[in-house]
Design a protein that fits this description.
The protein is an alpha/beta fold and 204 residues long. The chain contains six helices and 14 strands. It has a six-stranded mixed β-sheet, with helices on one face. β1 and β2 form a beta hairpin. The longest helix is centred in the last third of the chain and has 11 residues.
Length: 204
């Protein structure tokens, strides 16, 4: 089993995450944001070796420290294959990397951006700006797509198991994480809708 810690950094209330395998001591960081000092201290204190830097999408507030952290640690940057961010390994939808013996699987979840992705690791779903607690990411940006967000939220994420725990990219909700099943019930952006209804909803 993987262990995980959540760190809140920056004025935009970003979340970064540290995951590690206690047996192999291999670690991964999700979305190294404005300040990685807490993450790097934890890596050192726990005697971990950073293997991967996982990026959910290309926006500056999620990737600012990715390349500097790679230089300091020797870790590989992993993100969706379509991402414009400098990376070492690009994954397609459903592909995974191994941290110790545990799989970390990428789900391509476009909508907020074309390269937006979620990472599934040991029952935890790291959603970046795709899904927040009680909300979803914006779809009015340059490479956003409300139609893609419909496929992501209503088709893909609603089909995933209820017992997955959602860990978002920002602390915008009433709690820092929540079961996906609870989000399906209470998050108004995940309410079952037809595509037409969803597009009208997102434009209102």
């Amino acid at each position: 089993m993987l262990e995980s810690e959540q760190y809140k950094v920056g004025r935009a209330l970003n979340f970064s995450y540290l995951l590690w395998d206690p047996e192999s001591k291999e670690a991964a960081v999700v979305d190294p944001s404005f300040d990685t000092s807490q993450v790097e201290s934890a890596i050192s204190n726990k005697g971990l070796k950073l293997k991967f830097i996982l990026l959910t999408h290309h926006h500056h507030d999620h990737v600012q420290e990715a390349v500097p952290l790679r230089k300091r640690s020797g870790a590989r940057i992993v993100t969706h294959e379509s991402s414009s961010v400098e990376h070492d390994k690009g994954l397609s939808d459903g592909e995974s990397v191994l941290l110790g013996r545990e799989e970390i699987r990428l789900f391509h979840t476009p909508g907020h951006t074309a390269d937006s992705s979620c990472f599934l690791a040991d029952g935890r779903l790291y959603t970046g700006d795709t899904l927040f607690i009680g909300e979803c990411g914006r779809v009015d940006l340059e490479d956003s797509s409300p139609g893609s967000m419909y496929d992501t939220l209503i088709v893909k994420l609603r089909s995933l198991p209820d017992d997955l725990i959602v860990y978002p990219g920002h602390d915008y909700g009433k709690t820092p994480s929540a079961p996906l099943g609870e989000e399906k019930k209470s998050n108004y952006t995940l309410k079952p809708r037809s595509r037409e209804e969803f597009l009208i909803f997102m434009s209102s």
